[in-house]
Amino acid sequence: MDRTGRLDRLRSRMTADGVSQLLLSDLLNIRWLSGFTGSNALMLVSADRTVLITDSRYEIQLAEQTPSWIAPVISGSADGDRADDHIVGSLEGSTLTIEADSMSVAALESLESAIRDAGRPVDLARSEGLVADLRRIKDAGEIDRLRRAARIADAALEATLTWLRPGKTERRVARQLEWEMAERGSERPSFETILASGPNGGMPHARPSDRQLVEGDLVVIDFGATVDGYGSDMTRTIVIGNQPTDVQRRWYDNVAAAQAVGVAAIQAGTALRSIHRDTHGHLVASGQNGVYQHGTGHGVGLFIHERPILSSRIEGDVELGMALTVEPGAYLAGVGGVRVEDLVVVTPDGCEALSRFPKGLVPSL
Fold this sequence. Notes:
Elements: H1 3-17, E1 22-24, H2 27-34, E2 42-45, E3 50-55, H3 59-65, E4 71-75, H4 83-90, E5 95-99, H5 105-118, E6 123-127, H6 130-134, H7 140-160, H8 170-183, E7 194-197, E8 218-223, E9 226-227, E10 230-231, E11 234-239, H9 246-264, H10 272-285, E12 297-299, E13 306-310, E14 323-326, E15 329-332, E16 336-339, E17 342-347, E18 350-353
Parallel strand pairs: 1-5, 3-4, 5-6
Antiparallel strand pairs: 1-2, 2-3, 7-8, 8-11, 9-10, 12-13, 14-17, 15-16, 17-18
Helix pairs in contact: 4-5, 7-8, 9-10
């Protein structure tokens, strides 16, 4: 992956926004720019210098993971120096911009204290989403990792189908699904697996419970695998016993048709909000009860819910290289739920579906 190109894009954005020095505290933004995966880091970016600060636990890892254009700094030595001291010592101007959407109040107060102790006349400015906006567009290396994660998820769900039978608990089947992903190379689930059967499916973000699957249950399965930090995201709804009722078929068909409308709407240059409008509107027009109130989808990358969020309030257009989910659903309290979701990447011809597991209450494999 071209990390130098990412840094160039960030510096161009900084110049456009009037940012001379940017302090990154979001670990995923730091990983995206540098490749460093440690759990403690700060990165200072200026026009001609990039400094990455971590502690002694990661000294070897820092040297192995980061490119030569990063100046590594290890804090917490025997002298008791702080990361903030290194930040202040590396400043080249009188203004420092922080990531206001990731830096904690305590961290901000510590930085302000270090600035006062150093007697430096530094003004702190705040920025939100500067790097996150750049991360919306995936490069070839990122798309490859997303595709591989989706393939793992497809295969893992197929291997887990035999566990979807009466008497098995939601928790047991969910753990089997996660094991199947791990066996195929997933680093970890990309988020907490949702496997909700029967009435539990009426909760969009239900957690697997000890409820046993029952013949005729609708089961909502929302899950993903991870490859090199990049996660997949897919939802399928399956009936236990292969004999859905007419009501269940109609419910599923309504949601699946709306989802297909949303995927078809993804074209470079299309207004992002129109994807939500078309998908949600189609499901409402079908007469389906319990139409979803959450967003229609979201970006996916190093974080499972990245920008953009597909809702009625989102600004901007679909762009080439975006990785997006389309996930309408319908939920009835005490009855159950249906959700269908694919992860797609925007291409010159529309979009490519990375999720390939067959749709249908009884998937045809």
